C-alpha cells in the first residue's frame, strides 16, 4: 500500500488525507487540502487517457464526486490516492470510445499529441511528451479493463492491493489483467520481453 | 526501458493542468462545499440554473464588498480554504497559505527562476537640486537550490519617470541590460531576498517573534540610521520593519513553501490587516489584496499584497508612504512595487555575455 512518508512536511502541517476527509465531515473546507494535494496527479492521469481539455472536466468531476462521497471513505486508509484514481477511472470508463480514438490518433503521429492551447502559449508551457506510435496503437487495442489496470500501475504507482481497491476487483484479477495487457503490448511494440 | 517505463515517461512529461483549469475545478468544488448538505450535484460549467444562481450570488457579494470598501479583519482568525471569495483578510491569507504550499520545489541541482517587474523609487539631491522619481526594472533572477550556489541576475532597465527635479547623473538608460553574479542583487525594490529565509520557524507565532526581534535590533543599531532616534520613533520604525520583513519573506525564493505559508498565517494575526477586493499590481493585473497599514514617521504607510483572484497565487506587492512635500503638505507616494510575472523551476542559468560590465547598481 502506498502511504505518504510521515516526514512529509505538508502532511505534518495539514494531516493525512484520511484526517482531512474525516475533518471535512464537520468542516467541508478542509477537503480543499485533498484537492491541492492530488488534483494535478489526477488531471495528468486523465490527460494521458482522454486529452487535456477532457481532463479539465473529468478531473474536476472526480473531486466533486469524492467530496459528495466522503462519508463513505474508509478512514483507516491514510492516503486517498487509490480512492481518487478509482473515481477517475470510473469516469474515464464513460469515455472508452474516445480514449481508443485518442490512442489511434496518437499512433498516427510522432509529434506531441495535443495542440497547444492559447493558455499554454501564454504561460509558456511546452509539452515534452511524445508517445511512441506503436505504444499508442497497442493501448488502443487493449480492453478497457486491462487498460485500467496497466495505466494505474504504470502512471499512478499504485500497488496491486490499491488497484484492486480502486477498481473493486479481486487482487488476482489485477495480476492477470496486467500480465495480459503487458503481453499484448509487447507483441505490438515488438519488444519480446527485452528492454528497449 | 520496458513498456511500463515508456508509459510512465510519457505520463510524467505531460504538462499539469493549466491554472485556469485548476481554478475552475476549485470553484466547482467550492460551490459544492458551500451548498447545503443534500442539495445534490452542482451542474457542470454552462449547465443548469443552480450554478447561475450561485454566480449571481457571488457577484452580489462582490458588489457588496466593493461598495463597502475595505473590510477590516474582525478578529475571527478563522480560515476557510474552500470559500470561493474570502470574506476577510484572514480568509484571504489562509487561501494564500494553501496556494503557496503548491509552489514548485527545486531539486538540489536546479534553480528557481523569478521574473519580476520592479518599480524602484528614488530620491536624491545634486548640484542641480533635488530629484524624485521611480524607475521600472525587469529583474530576472536565477536562485540556486544548492546553499552555496551562485545567484545570477539579469536587470533590464526601463522608463525612469521623474516626478520632481531634473534627470540626474548615473541614470540607467531605458533598454540597458546588465548581468550580475552573486548576492549583490538580493536587496532590491525595498526588500531583501535573504539567503537565510529557509531557517525561519514554521509556526506563525514563533516566526513573528523572530521577525520582531530582528526589527528591534536593526532599528536600535546605531549604524542603521544616520541620526539619533527619538525614543518615540523607535516603536513606529519597528512596526514598519516588521511589515517590510514579512512582505519580503512572502516573495523570497530561499524560503520553503511551508515558511511562506507560515508568513501568510503570521500576517493574519497582525492588527490593521484588511482585505481589498480589487487591487492592481505593478504590472496592472487586477487581483484581490491584503493591505497592512501603520503609522510612519512622516505619515501613514501601507503595504498591499496582491493575489490572483481565483488561485490566490502571489501577484506582487506595492508600498505607499505619506511623505512631506517641499510645500509643507503630505502626499501619499508609491515608494516601491513588484509584480511577479513568473516563478518556476529551471535546470540552468543563462550564459553571461563576455562583454558584460555592469555600469549601474542592480
What would you say this structure looks like, in words?
- The complex is a heterodimer of chains A (196) and B (362).
- With 196 residues, chain A is mostly helical.
- In chain B, 29% of the residues lie in helices and 30% in strands.
- Chain B starts with a helix and ends in a 16-residue tail after the last strand.
- About 12% of the residues of chain B have low confidence.
- The longest helix of chain B is centred in the first third of the chain and has 20 residues.
- In chain B, a hairpin with a 2-residue loop joins strand 2 and strand 3.
- Chain B has a ten-stranded antiparallel beta sheet with strand order 1-8-9-10-11-12-2-3-4-5.
- The relative contact order of chain B is 0.15.
- Chains A and B meet through helix 1, helix 3, helix 4, helix 7 and helix 8 of A and helix 1 and helix 2 of B.
Give keywords.
heterodimer, A: 196 residues, mainly alpha, 11 helices, 66% helix, globular, disordered C terminus, B: 362 residues, alpha+beta, 10-stranded antiparallel sheet, 7 helices, 12 strands, 29% helix
Helix content of chain A: 55-70%
Tell me the strand percentage band of chain B.
25-35%
Structural class of chain A: mainly alpha
Separation of the first and last Cα atoms of chain B: 48 Å
Secondary structure elements and pairings:
The complex is a heterodimer of chains A (196) and B (362).
Chain A: H1 9-14, H2 17-24, H3 32-50, H4 52-68, H5 81-93, H6 96-107, H7 118-123, H8 133-141, H9 144-156, H10 160-167, H11 171-189
Helix pairs in contact in A: 3-4, 3-5, 4-5, 5-9, 5-10, 6-8, 8-11, 9-11, 10-11
Chain B: H1 3-13, H2 19-34, H3 49-68, E1 71-72, H4 89-100, E2 111-126, E3 129-144, E4 152-164, E5 177-181, E6 187-188, E7 191-192, H5 204-220, H6 233-250, H7 257-268, E8 273-280, E9 286-295, E10 300-307, E11 314-324, E12 330-346
Antiparallel strand pairs in B: 1-8, 2-3, 2-12, 3-4, 4-5, 6-7, 8-9, 9-10, 10-11, 11-12
Brief sketch in words of this structure:
With 196 residues, chain A is mainly α. In chain A, 66% of the residues lie in helices and 0% in strands.
Amino acid at each position: 500500500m502506498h502511504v505518504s512518508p510521515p516526514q512529509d512536511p505538508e502532511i505534518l502541517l495539514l494531516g493525512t488525507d484520511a484526517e482531512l476527509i474525516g475533518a471535512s465531515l464537520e468542516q467541508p473546507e478542509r477537503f480543499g487540502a485533498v484537492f491541492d494535494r492530488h488534483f494535478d496527479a489526477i488531471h495528468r492521469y486523465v490527460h494521458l487517457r482522454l486529452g487535456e481539455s477532457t481532463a479539465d472536466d473529468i478531473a474536476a468531476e472526480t473531486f466533486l464526486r469524492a467530496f459528495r462521497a466522503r462519508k463513505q471513505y474508509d478512514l483507516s486508509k491514510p492516503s486517498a490516492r487509490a480512492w481518487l484514481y478509482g473515481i477517475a477511472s470510473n469516469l474515464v470508463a464513460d469515455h472508452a470510445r474516445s480514449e481508443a480514438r485518442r490512442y489511434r490518433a496518437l499512433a498516427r503521429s510522432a509529434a506531441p499529441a495535443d495542440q497547444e492551447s492559447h493558455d499554454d502559449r501564454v504561460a509558456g508551457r511546452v509539452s515534452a511528451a511524445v508517445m511512441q506510435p506503436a505504444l499508442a496503437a497497442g493501448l488502443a487495442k487493449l480492453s478497457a479493463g486491462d487498460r485500467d489496470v496497466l495505466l494505474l500501475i504504470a502512471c499512478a504507482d499504485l500497488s496491486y492491493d490499491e488497484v484492486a481497491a480502486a477498481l473493486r476487483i479481486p487482487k488476482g484479477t489485477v495480476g492477470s489483467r496486467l500480465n495480459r495487457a503487458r503481453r499484448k503490448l509487447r507483441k505490438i511494440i515488438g519488444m519480446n520481453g527485452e528492454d528497449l | 526501458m520496458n513498456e511500463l517505463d515508456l508509459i510512465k515517461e510519457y505520463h510524467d512529461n505531460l504538462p499539469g493542468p493549466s491554472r485556469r483549469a485548476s481554478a475552475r475545478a476549485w470553484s466547482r468544488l467550492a460551490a459544492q462545499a458551500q451548498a447545503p448538505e443534500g442539495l445534490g450535484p452542482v451542474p457542470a460549467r454552462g449547465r443548469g440554473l443552480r450554478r447561475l444562481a450561485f454566480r449571481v450570488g457571488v457577484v452580489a457579494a462582490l458588489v457588496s464588498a466593493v461598495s463597502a470598501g475595505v473590510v477590516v479583519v474582525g478578529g475571527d482568525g478563522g480560515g476557510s480554504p474552500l470559500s470561493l471569495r474570502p470574506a476577510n483578510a484572514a480568509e484571504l491569507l489562509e487561501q494564500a497559505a494553501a496556494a503557496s504550499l503548491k509552489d514548485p520545489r527545486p531539486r538540489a541541482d536546479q534553480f528557481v527562476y523569478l521574473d519580476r517587474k520592479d518599480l524602484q523609487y528614488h530620491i536624491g539631491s545634486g548640484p542641480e537640486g533635488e530629484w524624485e522619481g521611480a524607475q521600472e526594472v525587469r529583474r530576472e533572477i536565477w536562485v540556486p537550490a544548492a546553499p552555496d550556489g551562485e545567484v545570477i541576475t539579469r536587470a533590464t532597465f526601463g522608463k525612469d519617470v521623474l516626478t520632481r527635479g531634473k534627470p540626474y547623473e548615473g541614470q540607467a538608460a531605458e533598454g540597458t541590460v546588465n548581468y550580475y553574479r552573486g548576492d549583490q542583487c538580493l536587496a532590491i525594490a525595498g526588500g531583501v531576498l535573504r539567503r537565510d529565509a529557509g531557517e525561519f520557524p514554521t509556526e506563525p507565532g514563533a516566526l513573528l517573534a523572530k521577525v520582531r526581534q530582528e526589527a528591534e535590533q536593526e532599528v536600535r543599531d546605531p549604524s542603521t540610521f544616520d541620526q539619533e532616534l527619538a525614543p518615540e520613533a523607535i516603536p513606529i520604525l519597528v512596526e514598519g520593519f516588521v511589515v517590510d520583513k514579512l512582505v519580503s519573506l512572502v516573495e523570497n525564493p530561499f524560503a520553503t513553501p511551508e515558511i511562506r505559508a507560515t508568513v501568510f498565517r503570521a500576517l493574519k494575526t497582525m492588527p490593521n490587516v484588511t482585505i481589498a477586493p480589487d487591487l492592481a499590481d505593478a504590472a496592472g493585473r487586477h487581483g484581490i489584496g491584503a493591505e497592512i497599514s501603520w503609522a510612519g514617521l512622516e505619515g501613514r504607510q501601507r503595504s498591499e499584497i496582491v493575489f490572483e483572484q481565483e488561485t490566490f497565487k502571489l501577484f506582487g506587492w506595492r508600498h505607499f508612504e505619506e511623505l512631506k512635500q517641499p510645500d509643507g503638505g503630505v502626499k501619499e507616494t508609491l515608494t516601491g512595487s513588484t509584480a511577479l510575472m513568473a516563478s518556476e523551476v529551471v535546470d540552468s542559468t543563462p550564459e553571461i555575455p563576455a562583454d558584460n560590465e555592469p555600469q549601474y547598481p542592480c
